[in-house]
Amino acid sequence: MTQHLNLQPLALPPYYDPLRVGELWRVPYQERAIQARQWAEQYAIRPAAQDAVKIALIAIDVQNTFCLPDFELFVAGRSGMGAVEDTRRLSEFIYRNLGSISTIVASLDTHRAMQVFHPVYLIDENGQHPGPLTLVSHDDVLQGRWMFNPAIAPSLGISPGVGQQQLIHYTWQLKESGKYDLTVWPYHAMLGGIGHSLVPALEEAIFFHTIARSTQAAFILKGEYASTESYSAIGPEVLSGPEGEAIASKDDSFLRTVIEHDLVFIAGEAKSHCVASTIADLLEQILAYDPGLARRVCLLEDCTSPVVVPGVVDYTDKADAVFKDFARAGMRLLRSTDLAEI
Fold it and tell me: What are the sequence ranges of the domains in the chain?
């Protein structure tokens, strides 16, 4: 059922500087907490628990590693500054609608060095690791172009043979399901590193929302499995091992967010990969539970960008086509300025 909200957007807090969204800094938590309480009093913002209409925002992987230009996997989009522009609009979406957003959920891509999509996991016949953005097909593994690196087996608690068997199985599963070939990415979103953290501008907005609305933000870690990629925040690309053993499962927390809220907005990086994969998994769960829930999901198209590497790859058209599929299934494609019009 469509919600007629007729909301009046709030002002942006005076400390917010859109020109700093692409920068790295420390959020002054205590100062922002005081300002948030004052802001709530000034604008008569009530605790989120009192909201008659429940609205959630899911922010996918809005982390330094993807959203700041000097970091490992900056999502530039076709504009060249895609993730910075997205983060600015998303931060302003939170501030403008501070009194209406009941819940914020943020996923965090979370990695360690020894994972199947990082260079150290693989070697060629000369013992050399693949470079970033190398695509590894099932045939490449079968023909020995790329192999599991036996030197890391003890650290992962497996034998070199099991590691190779897992690699063969994994690339076969990707091929059978029609997914991307295994992509070797630069080391990124490393647990404990600054690339793993939320972009300061968005972290600040979420913290401000937490204090002003008296509601705890939720954080979901994804991507820690060594032998599989995890684009989706709901579950990894492959759920079973070579012997059919379960290695992971799909999480239902996003589905529960949709069930428990009247509207759920989704944004983040990258549109072509982690965002699209998460939404696809969520849609599958919705269709199995109650297809009518799809109308509650709103995709903020101006707060997400696809992977674009000039002269190498451009996923813009593919990402746009996938989002149109989501719309045909009932989800709504909106801009961050459209909330008052719903």
Answer: 18-111+188-341, 119-183
